[in-house]
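Entry:
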Amino acid sequence: MAEQLTGLADDRALLGRTSTAERVSDILRSRIAEGYFPPGTRLSEDGIGGALGVSRNTLREAFRLLTHERLLVHELNRGVFVRVLTVEDVEDIYRTRTLVECAVVRGLGDPPYALDALSAAVTEGQRAAAGDDWKAVGTANIHFHRELVALAGSERTDELMRSVFAELRLAFHVVDDPHALHEPYLARNRQILESLERGDRHQAERLLETYLTDSLERVVEVYRRRVDSAP
C-alpha cells in the first residue's frame, strides 16, 4: 500500500483548487484502471486522504461514487475495498463493450478518421511488449479501446465506458499469465487500426466483434479457473 500511496501523492496536483469528490473519484478510478489497486485491496481513508490532501468527508463521498460504479465495495465494520468481480460481472462487462464499441465503429461515418490517439495506443502496447512489461501492455490495450470509443465524440459514452474499462482492469488482475492474455491482441489492435486507416469501418467492426468474443472466452476461462481454485 505504501508504494501505491507514493504514486497517488503525485496526483495531488491534479486536484488544483477544486478538491471535489468528483475529481478525487476520477483520480482513484484512473488508478484502478491502471492497475495500482488490485481487487480486494483495502483503501485507507487516512492514507489516501493524506496522499491527496483532501478531507475525510470528501474522500468518503468519492468512495460512495465509486461504489455506485461497482469499483469499490463497503464492508460493515471492515472498511472500503476494491471490488472482486464474479464471472457474471466479467460476462456483463464484455456484453456492454460489444454493444458500445461495435456501435461506435459502425457509426463513424465517412473517412478519414482522427486516429492519432488510437495509433499512439498501438505503439504504446508494442513498446511495452518489447520491454516485457505485460501489465503495461494490458494498460495500453485499455487505452486503445478507450480511444476507439472516443472516436464517437460523445462525452456521455466516454463517461459510461471509463468505469467499464476500470472494471475490466479488475478482471485482468486475476489472470496469472498476462503475457498469454494480452500478446494476441497486439496484432489485432493493429489490424483494427489499419482497417480504419483504409476507411473500412465495416471490416474494423467485424474484426472488433470477433476480437471481443475471443477475448471474453479467454478471460472467462482463466477467470473461472482462478475463482474456482481460490480458498
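The chain has eleven helices and three strands.
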